[in-house]
């Protein structure tokens, strides 16, 4: 049992505290022992004086000396019938230095006298006054030396300390055994489970099953089990995302080739004789171009990191109009939804600095989520996109009058595969949007979500942390 272990320190503290408690009761115990010692001397002296009273004639000097010696005193004075009489006397002639009256001593006075007596090494002569037992007189006085009293007190104190030390060691051993069984053994079990889990964190069989009887240990095991389940789930999700990333990279590679071919054919639509086709061709080309860029970005992300945004200055209103027009075409039935109204509140002169394609993706995700939420209720609703700016940042607000997000979705809102509330949804839209805004040095936050709808706010700082050399002006 080492002192740097919990059991060793527990045992050491137990011994220290028990000894400290014994020291605290040592002073009252010594005081009580001193009073008993003096009371015994008074009783012995009374018995010796009664033997003298029983004799009708004077006793011999040697007998008187023997009675005084057996009583442990120098002389005895007994007061009877208002007469003070010297009953026994020895040849000791030292003067009396102090008088103690045991008839009216308080506990504090008695403890003070005991301490002074214990630390006074000189053999002083004291007078002790007390009441005779069995009403054998009015009072009895004795004189005696303090050396025997002090030595008796020292012997008693040493015996008490030795007994206390023995009890301390025994108590410490018993407490240590109890601690080993009730506390340390469950703790070692928890530590063993932690080590086992650390070697295979993806194995659910290594998750601890709480079964401790102690409330504190049971709470610790429950918290550990919850943490292990969360970590195991996160590791499995990480593996699924890694596998998904590989699959998406393969799909994006082939999809890029298909879209590149489609882009070539879309360019030829601009030469069509149909004016509607010629007007729709540039939008089709732009959509295919963004799809190709997205595929290339996905492939780049699969190899290393997503490339930094290409910053440019552009008016926000046309971009929002483009997003809303695209979402309207994707509405129910392939035509503009009859139950969703789109409202914009963007100053025509508002120009922001960001990556236009990435911001298009962010707004498309937010508006699409709002449209799908409203369509899910089969009730008319409104989607509003507003923009503003101040000295520090540009702000874009996207709000809807849909049913709002449930608590679970709000808790895992920006976590992949966790924040979706739509059947068949992946939960990646808001995750991607938040990451793209962070890449611009800004943040995406949920302002509110209740039965009256949801509202998101995009913050894009003017003083961006990201700087690139590929910055253009497209106004």
From TrEMBL:
InterPro entries: HATPase_C_sf, HATPase_dom, His_kinase_dom, HisK_dim/P_dom, HisK_dim/P_sf, Sig_transdc_His_kin-like_C
Transmembrane segments annotated in the record for this chain: 12-31, 156-179
EC number annotated for this UniProt entry: 2.7.13.3
Signal peptide: none
Reactions mediated catalytically: ATP + protein L-histidine = ADP + protein N-phospho-L-histidine
Domain (Histidine kinase): residue spans on this chain: 250-464
Keyword line: Kinase, Membrane, Phosphoprotein, Transferase, Transmembrane, Transmembrane helix
Top-rank taxon, per record: Bacteria
Catalytic class of the enzyme: transferase
One annotated GO molecular function: kinase activity
SUPFAM superfamilies per the UniProt record, alphabetical: ATPase domain of HSP90 chaperone/DNA topoisomerase II/histidine kinase, Homodimeric domain of signal transducing histidine kinase
Protein name per the record: histidine kinase
């Amino acid at each position: 049992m080492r002192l740097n272990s919990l059991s060793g320190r527990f045992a050491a503290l137990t011994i220290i505290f028990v000894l400290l408690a014994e020291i605290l009761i040592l002073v009252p115990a010594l005081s009580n022992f001193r009073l008993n010692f003096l009371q015994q001397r008074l009783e012995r002296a009374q018995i010796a004086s009664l033997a003298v009273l029983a004799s009708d004639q004077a006793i011999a000097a040697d007998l008187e000396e023997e009675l005084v010696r057996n009583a442990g005193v120098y002389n005895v004075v007994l007061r009877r019938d208002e007469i003070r009489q010297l009953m026994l006397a020895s040849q000791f002639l030292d003067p009396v230095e102090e008088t103690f009256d045991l008839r009216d001593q308080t506990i504090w006075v008695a403890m003070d006298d005991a301490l002074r007596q214990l630390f006074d090494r000189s053999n002083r002569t004291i007078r002790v006054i007390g009441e005779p037992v069995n009403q054998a007189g009015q009072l009895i006085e004795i004189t005696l030396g303090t050396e025997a009293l002090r030595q008796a007190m020292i012997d008693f104190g040493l015996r008490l300390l030795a007994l206390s030390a023995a009890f301390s060691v025994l108590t410490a051993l018993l407490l240590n055994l109890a601690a080993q069984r009730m506390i340390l053994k469950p703790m070692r079990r928890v530590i063993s489970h932690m080590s086992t889990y650390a070697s295979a964190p993806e194995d659910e069989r290594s998750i601890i099953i709480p079964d401790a009887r102690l409330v504190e240990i049971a709470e610790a095991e429950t918290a550990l089990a919850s943490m292990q389940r969360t970590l195991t789930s996160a590791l499995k999700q990480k593996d699924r995302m890694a596998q998904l990333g590989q699959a998406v990279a393969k799909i994006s590679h082939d999809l890029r080739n298909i879209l590149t071919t489609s882009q070539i054919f879309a360019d030829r639509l601009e030469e069509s004789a149909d004016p509607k086709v010629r007007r729709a061709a540039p939008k089709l080309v732009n959509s295919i171009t963004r799809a190709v860029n997205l595929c290339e970005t996905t492939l780049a992300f699969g190899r290393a990191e997503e490339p930094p945004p290409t910053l440019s200055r552009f008016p926000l209103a046309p971009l929002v109009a483009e997003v809303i027009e695209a979402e309207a075409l994707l509405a129910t039935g392939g035509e503009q939804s009859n139950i969703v109204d789109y409202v914009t509140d963007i100053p025509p002169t508002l120009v922001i600095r960001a990556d236009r394609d990435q911001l298009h993706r962010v707004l498309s995700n937010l508006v699409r989520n709002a449209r799908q939420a409203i369509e899910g209720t089969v009730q008319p609703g409104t989607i509003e996109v507003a923009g503003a700016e101040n000295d520090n940042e540009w702000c874009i607000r996207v709000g809807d009058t849909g049913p709002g997000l449930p608590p679970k979705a709000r808790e895992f809102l920006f976590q992949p595969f966790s924040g979706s509330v739509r059947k068949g949804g992946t939960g990646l839209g808001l995750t991607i949007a938040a990451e793209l805004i962070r890449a611009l040095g800004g943040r995406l936050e949920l302002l509110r979500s209740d039965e009256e709808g949801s509202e998101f706010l995009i913050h894009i700082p003017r003083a961006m942390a990201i700087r690139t050399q590929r910055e253009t002006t497209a106004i």
